[in-house]
Design goal:
The complex is a heteropentamer of chains A (528), B (337), C (545), D (123) and E (100). With 337 residues, chain B is mainly α. Helix content of chain B is 67%, strand content 0%. The relative contact order of chain B is 0.13. Classes of the chains: A mainly alpha (528), B mainly alpha (337), C mainly alpha (545), D mainly alpha (123), E mainly alpha (100).
Chain lengths: 528, 337, 545, 123, 100
């Protein structure tokens, strides 16, 4: 058979050490699963949550240490232009990359999950979720999936990560076994998730057919040669990829599943879907766009430009549709789901703005907004858990008179709402501002207009929370805020404001640790 | 056979292949007829009975008579049955049973298809029969048939897993999925055959194989006392015959497969016995396995369904996996150096 | 000693000090809360008065300028090439000049008066004052910020407290009013943000060579000065004509084409026009005037509306003098429309608060006229009109609050003959009315007169029409105020108590300032003297006069 | 290459023969066997009684759980087979990798065991 | 040769997509998704032999995709069973607890 023989590269012991963050999570998951199985039924499972949190934080520590280590002088090298670039660890024939890009994403995912676990510790009740132990330790493989997605340099690992994340979240969404809503949400999520992975795979299969490789770097090289001859197929491939990934990131018009699923899922899982799932899908989008699509332009067909334009249109649609649909929502979780759709639109903007002479990196804007989005969404949903525990439902009217029942929580909620609406002095404002400035650098002014307009529309429903909290009142009884949940609320609120007052250090830190050639243009550095 | 395989395909060659296939088919049908006869005889002797002895000399034509009877019996299809599936099921059961025989080698030179994924082919195709059984049970639209079919499916899939994993050790030692290579790789002395180094795998394989065949002590799907006749309760005439045929063709196949995988195929037990042709050794081993199957049928009682499932999942599966890793560690220490 | 302090920061953030104290006070102790809040507003007043005294108009406000890096978000610099840094640079840049100083004073004065007037608030004093002080921080910041994004942050900071103040403490339809306020101002600020983003990404770009070193610092700056300089300097890259053979703007990502300049200018005009409010966008303001609590309307009408005019001047006119000059006629017409529309509708209102609301629209029209004149007199007139209207409307709404507290109504038909039972309040009301209609000797006259005088220079017909509107002012003011003070008195109002001390003090203070400006306008014109020179120079250069 | 094609031709021939036999046998049988259907013959068999209710009864969900377990371990073999074939050529690390993979699956088995999936009760 | 495989896969995929979007029976919906995934497998295997640059990775990809599809189907049906217990129906149109 005339098949290209690829050399097999096995993982060595030292390579395995680089995977410490992932190993730690897996070991914790296995250990906790066994403990949960062997313990008698009556023992309370809360400690599993704390152990999960411990595992996540340990892993986070490893990721940060690795990030700093890669960028330290010892492992830095100089590239052809004489610039100092940081090292990248490539495992298994470059199918698993530990680079700054991945590490930054992993930090976001792990932080988010840690906050979500902490939030759950205060809000998950035994009568609601029968298998509390499972609930906690299933989050770990989900995060591992997200981390694999961020690290993958190969369509195969990318797909495995995607499915590891998806399948575990299917279960997590449906974990309230006896609630109809939960099961229904889980089913809808399974179906849309299945369709989306089929679409993604279909697109990938065409890409593979044209390039003959699944490694992103190899694809980048191959696609430059073949793009001209197979541009129709490439268009089809990119269309399918965009549609599939659009479902995963819940961007309009592929967002219809989001409200139902977010509503039916347990609230912390809603936060997980909104932040980690979405972020991980974006990690894929970034890699695919800058490794494959970016190199697919030919003189006769502006493939890359068309894809970028399509993505921008998708972003605009997400913003407009998300904000408009949220106007009518009375259910908080549905509302936040739709706001998540709009936010997916905002997050898509930097990805889909192509680079030019002045706009040399969109990653800083993106990760900045993702971090802010993490804080405000998780914070808001943490407040929602408190409210729905007190009110017994998820309707927005549950917020009525919150200011008089729990003033500090209401104050934190104001911070989240303002941040979501993009008003100063919150992280949300600078997140959007950086994205807008990025768009302005590429002279894509129309998307600025759309973005700002959708923000204004969103004021209406975000301030709906404020109206409820301050201008309505029901009972005067105080709302009980469990300590872990309160901790989450305050961490998020303070961080949101802190980023809103001083966004510079974070943005600089991200951009100092990110080099676009090393981390995204995998293909432009053959071999390595 | 090997020489034809290397030639360019022509219609003539295809016809030769076809004729070989027909010959094998005839052999297999003959085997089935007389396997049934001998089963009855052997069990009879073991139970101090004579067994069939009226039709033909020593009752040798008994099975032939049975087949003729089945052929001429009226064929009823229940009104409520799903007609298409009802008709499809027996054929669907039989086709894979016969098709798996294509990859079994008999001697160094006597084999049909020489596929390098032969073992996988066998495992994959034999799984299809499960579907046929469920289909038959479902299409009958009968409570007994349905439950029998479901049980049968549950049992077959439960034992398929240990069966499949138990041969992994053999595959590891050989480094190939080609059944011919596997048979060839086994040594000249009988203790070098796979059944000793792979004793755990061998035992699991045999147990699981018996269960896959739905034979005693694992014949629960057909448990007369509970389920009348299981999935084929509504079948009569020649459609019923095909289910029976399937079972016995699988007996043939499993016996041959066990011989190839574990008992050294056509190898003589010791180098000095090489003068006896390989095919004889193969047939001897093969016959022994067949006899063994009859033997346990006569000996063992039927086990309960919870015991059946427990055995499969809680004992055989962990053991099979353990076997894989024992083999791996053994190879790591002694073979790879 | 005082001059060593970062005086501008102190002014802006001193209310926060009060806010901190407020947070730790128990919410039942209304007296403590009120006292703290009033003191917290007094500090910026005193500081700004000192600043006014210290301000030297010939030198401008350079000495008070505060500059430190606020956001220095470095960007990925790989692809650009050999630069040592590449970043978004937004500065914490505060400054004062002739344009901001009067408005700063206005803010601090009205702030204290509103705080005093807020003692009427009936519920939730603690949160009221917290929002109130935050609002003051925002307003002060708006007038002092010299970085577009810092300006924007402060601008938005006024929005949120206003939403709460209207929505919680307002009258019957407070929520709708709050929503409408939020919606219009949100749109306004969003448009402003678009304009700023476009500006920063083009005109905000600067490349600094470090002398003696091979280092280049590239940055996108939000600095007002940088942007203004780039925009008005014909030699800068923003205005550099592209090579003739290439397409427009090709190769120079910072080039602002004519269309771009115009669109940014129009966006700014629209953004600040909504705030001002210019005629078709004024409806939110009526709602706010009618529904917000009187002390909040004092702030709103007294200061917040001025932010629109201030922004229009500083960003619209100063940054795009050429475009503004080209549109002078349009501005003037808009102003006249505002004057006439406001006056006519004020004439037919049955509610006193709405009369005042429409009169605000009308008076803001005069500001537009002043701006449209594009000469020193007119611009000074506009500024004085801003300050004077701020003071007058604050005073009027203070009185409205007092009257409402006593009578429970602001309907013109309900009120009448209050002069008998409330002689003091009525007297102040009459005087304030006179100031509003532009009686010489009071501040309103100076502003109107100078504005119209300035405009008369260039657009005579429009001026004439505007004067007609001003005459109408007299009609509606007299109609309503005379109706309230004199005329038949309803029996139930006979036993009303006249103003208490805490009401009288702010009334008299405000009136005193009104008189001061009316009699001696130089208190305001003096610091402004050199404020417009540079602008007018540029305009004249551009227009070639 | 010829060998490759020939091998699969043989496989195809075996499958064709497998299909032919039932077709031929049943067609031939049609000529030989009688056909005298009556109502009674065509009723569903239920030990001689009148059939009660539907034939397609609901059965235990446990069957599904076994199917699930089967899928999991069958898929494991998908990975186990290629691994086993190539095992000789690889180092110790490959063994560790497979041990981790299988270990995780065994945890799954333990899970099922502890959750009483493997315990059979009633039909 | 390649194009016939691709056409076949595309047809399968379209049937699957249609089924997943239109069919009312939840089981059929899940089946349709499997159909789509199988179409992809067909594509991958065809490309690995007849693609522009033939390589083995397509077959590897197929192995993984089969495994993952199995897991997905397992979870899907488990969820469906839980839902069936709660609602007593597998009609997709009746899963409308949350739409208001």
């Amino acid at each position: 058979m005339d098949v290209v023989q690829q050399p097999l590269q096995s993982l060595s012991w030292s390579d395995a050490a680089y995977l410490a963050p992932e190993w730690i999570l897996i070991v914790f998951m296995v250990g906790l699963a066994v403990i949960d199985l062997l313990l008698p039924r009556r023992v309370t499972r809360s400690f599993i949550g704390w152990l999960t949190l411990g595992g996540l934080l340990t892993s986070l520590g490893c990721v940060v240490w690795r990030l700093l280590d890669i960028n330290s002088a010892a492992s830095a090298t100089t590239n052809a232009n004489g610039q100092v670039v940081s090292g990248v660890i490539r495992l298994l024939a470059d199918s698993y990359r530990i680079d700054n890009y991945a590490s930054l994403f992993k930090i976001v995912f792990l932080t988010a999950t840690a906050l979500i676990v902490l939030m759950s510790l205060g809000s998950v009740k035994r009568e609601d979720i029968a298998d509390k132990g499972e609930y906690y330790y299933l989050l770990l493989p989900a995060v591992v999936g997200a981390m694999i997605m961020a690290s993958s340099g190969d369509m195969l690992t990318l797909y495995i990560g995607l499915e590891l994340l998806s399948i575990t979240t299917y279960v997590l969404v449906g974990i309230r076994k006896h609630a109809v809503q939960s099961a229904e949400a889980a089913f809808k999520y399974v179906v849309t998730g299945g369709i989306s992975s089929a679409l993604i795979l279909f697109g990938m299969s065409y890409l593979y057919g044209i390039t003959g490789a699944t490694n992103l770097g190899a694809m980048a090289q191959s696609i430059q040669q073949h793009a001209g001859d197979y541009k129709e197929l490439l268009y089809v491939a990119f269309f399918f990829l965009l549609a599939g990934l659009g479902i995963k990131i819940a961007a309009a018009p592929f967002h219809v599943w989001a409200p139902d699923v977010y509503q039916g899922a347990p609230t912390p899982i809603t936060a997980f879907l909104a932040v980690v799932s979405k972020g991980a899908a974006f990690a894929i989008v970034f890699r695919l766009i800058y490794n494959v699509v970016f190199h697919a332009t030919t003189p006769e067909a502006p493939l890359a430009d068309d894809v970028f334009l399509a993505m921008l249109i998708m972003a605009a649609a997400a913003m407009v549709i998300g904000s408009a649909a949220a106007l009518r929502q009375k259910n908080v979780k549905r509302l936040l789901a739709l706001s998540g759709v709009a936010n997916a639109g905002y997050l898509l903007v930097p990805v889909s703005l192509s680079l030019n002479g002045m706009h040399v990196s969109n990653f800083g804007e993106f990760i900045f907004y993702l971090a802010v989005y993490l804080l405000m969404t998780i914070g808001a949903l943490a407040v929602v858990t408190v409210i729905s525990a007190a009110a017994g439902h998820d309707e927005i009217s549950g917020f009525a008179g919150l200011y008089y029942r729990a003033p500090w929580t209401a104050a934190a909620m104001i911070v989240f709402v303002l941040s979501l609406a993009g008003l100063p002095v919150t992280g949300g404002f600078f997140g959007k501002l950086f994205i807008l400035l990025g768009a302005a650098q590429t002279q894509t002014y129309w998307i600025i207009a759309v973005m700002v307009a959708s923000s204004v529309v969103s004021y209406y429903f975000y301030f709906g929370f404020i109206r409820q909290m301050f201008m309505r009142s029901t009972s005067e009884e105080t709302v009980h805020v469990p300590v872990p949940t309160g901790l989450v609320i305050w961490i998020c609120a303070i961080a949101t404001v802190a980023i809103g007052i001083l966004p510079g250090p974070m943005m600089s830190w991200v951009n100092d640790h990110f080099t676009i050639i090393n981390d995204l243009f995998i293909g432009s550095q053959p071999g390595g | 056979m090997g020489s034809w395989l290397d030639e360019t395909l022509t219609w003539g060659n295809a016809l030769i292949f076809f004729l070989w296939g027909v010959i094998l088919l005839a052999l297999v049908l003959g085997f089935v007829s007389y396997a049934i006869f001998f089963e009855r005889k052997v069990i009879g002797w073991m139970q101090f009975r004579i067994g069939p002895n009226r039709v033909g000399p020593m009752g040798l034509l008994q099975t032939v008579a049975d087949i003729m009877k089945l052929l001429m019996k009226e064929d009823t299809i229940p009104r409520k049955a799903d007609r298409a599936l009802f008709i499809l099921a027996p054929a669907l059961a039989y086709v894979p049973a016969f098709a798996v025989l294509a990859v079994i080698p008999y001697t160094q030179n006597l084999y049909f298809a020489d596929i390098n994924v032969g073992l996988l082919y066998y495992v994959a195709l034999s799984g299809i029969s499960t579907i046929a059984i469920v289909l038959g049970g479902w299409a009958s639209n009968n409570k007994y048939a349905l439950l029998g079919g479901m049980r049968s499916a549950a049992q077959m899939i439960s034992y398929e897993v240990p069966l499949v994993i138990s041969v992994v050790g053999v595959v590891m030692l050989t480094g190939s999925l080609n059944l011919r290579t596997i048979a060839q790789a086994q040594g000249d002395w009988f203790w070098q055959w796979n059944f000793l180094p792979q004793i755990i795998g061998f035992v699991i394989f045999v147990i699981a194989a018996v269960s896959e065949l739905n034979r005693t002590p694992f014949d629960l799907p057909e448990a007369e006392s509970e389920l009348v006749a299981g999935y084929h309760v509504e079948y009569s005439g020649f459609r019923f015959a095909f289910f029976m045929l399937t079972e016995y063709v699988y007996v043939y196949a499993i016996a041959a497969l066990t011989t190839v995988l574990f008992l050294g195929g056509w190898h003589a037990p010791a180098p000095f016995l090489d003068f006896v042709p390989g095919i004889i050794w193969f047939l001897l081993k093969f016959s022994f396995i067949v006899f063994f199957l009859f033997w346990i049928r006569a000996t063992l009682p039927r086990i309960r369904i919870d015991q059946l499932m427990g055995l499969g999942w809680k004992v055989l599966l962990p053991l099979a996996i353990l076997n894989v890793f024992l083999t791996a560690v053994y190879m790591e220490l002694f073979i790879k150096g | 000693m005082l001059s060593d302090l970062p005086i501008l920061s102190c002014i802006i953030f001193s209310p926060l000090l009060g806010l901190l104290v407020l947070l730790f006070l128990p919410k039942q102790r209304s007296r403590w809360l009120k006292t703290t809040a009033i003191i917290a507003t007094l500090i910026p007043l005193l500081l700004s008065l000192w600043l006014y005294a210290d301000y030297d108009s010939t030198k401008g406000g350079k000495t008070y300028e505060e500059l430190s890096t606020w956001v220095d978000a470095s960007l990925n610099k790989e692809v650009v090439g050999a630069v040592s840094s590449y970043s978004f640079k937004f500065q914490y840049h505060l400054g004062i000049d002739g344009l901001s100083l009067p408005l700063l004073l206005l803010t601090t004065i009205v702030g204290v008066m509103a705080a005093l007037a807020s003692v009427n608030v009936k519920k939730r004093w603690k949160s009221f004052y917290i929002w109130f002080l935050l609002l003051e921080v925002g307003m002060l910041g708006v007038f002092l910020a010299r970085d577009v994004f810092l300006f924007f942050v402060f601008f938005e900071l006024t929005l949120i407290p206003m939403f709460f103040l209207i929505g919680i403490w307002g009258f019957m339809n407070r929520e709708r009013a709050a929503n409408k306020f939020l919606l219009y101002n949100g749109i306004g600020s969003a448009i402003m943000l678009i304009a700023f983003v476009m500006l920063v990404s083009t005109a905000g770009f600067r490349a600094d060579q470090v002398p003696d070193k091979q280092e280049t610092h590239l940055s996108y700056s939000g600095s007002y000065e940088v942007i203004q300089q780039n925009l008005t300097d014909p030699a800068s890259y923003v205005n550099a004509a592209p090579p003739a053979n290439s397409q427009e703007g090709e190769g120079n990502p910072f080039y602002l084409s004519k269309t771009m300049r115009w669109s940014i200018f129009l966006l700014l005009l629209l953004a600040f026009g909504i705030k001002l409010p210019v005629f078709p966008f004024h409806t939110w303001m009526l709602k706010v005037h009618a529904e917000a609590p009187p002390s909040v309307v004092m702030i709103h009408s007294g200061v917040l509306l001025k932010m629109g005019a201030y922004g229009l001047l500083r960003f619209g006119v100063f940054m795009f003098p050429g475009e503004a000059k080209d549109w002078a006629a349009v501005l003037a017409i808009l102003g006249v429309v505002n004057i006439l529309y406001g006056a006519v509708l004020a004439l037919v209102q049955k509610e006193f608060k709405l009369v005042l609301a429409y009169s605000s629209i009308s008076h803001m029209g005069i500001v537009l006229l002043g701006i449209a004149s594009f000469n020193e007199i007119g611009l000074q007139g506009a500024m004085i009109q801003l300050v004077s209207h701020g003071l007058i409307s604050a005073l009027l709404f203070l009185i409205v609050g007092s009257i409402y507290e006593r009578t429970g109504s602001t309907q013109l038909s309900d009120l009448g003959g209050l002069a008998r039972s409330l002689p003091f309040i009525s007297g102040i009301l009459l005087t304030a009315g006179m100031a509003s209609l532009g009686l010489p000797g009071l501040s309103g006259f100076v502003g109107e007169f100078l504005s119209l005088l300035g405009l008369f220079d260039s657009m005579r017909i429009i001026t004439a029409v505007a004067v007609l509107g001003v005459i109408l002012t007299a009609v509606y003011v007299l109609r309503s105020i005379l109706g309230i003070t004199f005329g038949p008195m309803s029996e139930r109002y006979a036993a009303l108590r006249d103003a208490r001390l805490i009401e009288a003090v702010p009334m008299i203070t405000l009136l005193a300032f009104i008189l001061l400006i009316g009699i001696y306008p130089s208190v305001l014109t003096e610091p402004m003297k050199h404020g417009f020179d540079a602008l007018l120079e540029q305009i004249n250069e551009k227009v070639g006069r | 290459m010829e060998r490759y094609i020939n091998n699969y031709v043989i496989v195809a021939i075996f499958i064709i023969l497998g299909i032919l036999l039932p077709v031929v046998a049943l067609s031939v049988g049609r000529l030989l066997r009688p056909s005298k259907p009556t109502e009674e013959k065509k009723t569903t068999y239920e030990s001689g009684n009148e059939p009660v209710g539907e034939g397609q009864v609901r059965f235990n969900v446990r069957y599904y759980l076994f199917a699930l377990m089967f899928v999991i371990f069958d898929v494991e073999t998908v990975f186990l087979y290629p691994w086993a074939v190539a095992y000789k050529q690889f180092g110790l690390f490959v063994l560790v990798e497979m041990a981790i993979f299988t270990g995780l699956l065994l945890i799954g088995l333990l899970y099922a065991w502890k959750k009483k999936v493997l315990k059979w009760n009633s039909i | 040769m390649l194009s016939s495989y691709l056409t076949m896969a595309a047809i399968l995929f379209c049937i699957g997509l249609y089924g997943a979007l239109v069919k009312k029976n939840a089981v059929i919906v899940l089946l349709s998704i499997e159909l789509m995934l199988n179409a992809v497998n067909l594509n991958l295997v065809a490309f690995s032999k007849y693609g522009v640059v033939p390589s083995l990775s397509g077959q590897m990809f197929t192995l993984f995709s089969i495994a993952v599809a199995a897991a997905e189907a397992a979870v899907g049906i488990a969820v469906l069973i839980a839902l069936f217990r709660a609602r007593g129906t597998v009609n997709v149109d009746e899963f409308d607890e949350m739409r208001r």
